[in-house]
């Protein structure tokens, strides 16, 4: 069956583009393996250029996105480019504002591993036609009953579609050993260890409780070989429960405790976070603030826990051993 098509999409609230962020400060660590990309880029693309398309390009075609347990749609834009639309829905692990917030946090901290994402409203009828065209009666019924939003439009996160195939990152299950100061770090695994250190801290900061459920740590691959680790699937993030420590504080605390090797550049970026700066960054999305004031305060509570943990490790082992990544 033909996929659902539309030529004109209703206008959105306001422009989204941010001014370019300054580059991160010089690292205190040793070596250059695992260095993060400069702020304002994703896989070598300028964030603003990608955002301009995912925020504003008219939608040409929509199809059901297969895989996963939540409702999502593949989107083709007029003039080229693709996106993944994650609509507002009933599933707790599919909070579209959490997806938007994770991208804004990645951009603010200079992580550069979360695909650019923008809040958009899409016609409910367009999504339902795409669901009906999928030939899956169960999926069609879920779209009819589980999508939220008012009237004819459904809000959601339009996420840049990473081109090409994605593959699981090998050896991620060894992250505890790679970040353990009592074990030598093989030089050939330094880049992987640096990525995993930032990923675990990033997920603790955001309270992403779904990262390690399986299949959520991926990288692109093309003819030139594998690309960098991506921090995707962030819909189960930003709980403000348990005095700001999140939905599963024990599990997250155990993961944090195992991080003993750090990027001082990333720690400096964390120190620079403020309630005002976070609120301003999260308010840049055209659908309004990605996080509430309570969620912002919870982020800062978790930030303080990360910095306290890093301070304990460096006091016990010294910066030379703990600050091994840029």
Essential attributes:
disordered N terminus; 326 residues; 11 strands; globular; six-stranded antiparallel β-sheet; three-stranded antiparallel β-sheet; alpha+beta; 15% strand
Question: What layout of secondary structure does this protein have?
Answer:
Layout: E1 4-5, E2 41-42, E3 45-46, H1 47-56, E4 59-64, E5 73-77, E6 82-87, H2 96-109, E7 117-123, H3 124-133, H4 137-146, E8 153-160, E9 166-168, H5 175-178, H6 190-206, E10 218-222, E11 225-226, H7 249-257, H8 264-271, H9 275-282, H10 293-317, H11 319-322
Helix pairs in contact: 3-4, 6-10
The largest pleated sheet is described as: 6 strands, antiparallel
Give the structural class. alpha+beta
Mean pLDDT: 88
Shape: globular
Number of strand elements: 11
Strand order of the largest sheet: 1-4-5-6-8-7
- Roughly how many Å apart are the termini? 51 Å
Give Rg in angstroms. Answer: 20 Å
Helix content: 25-40%
> How many helices?
11
Number of domains: 2
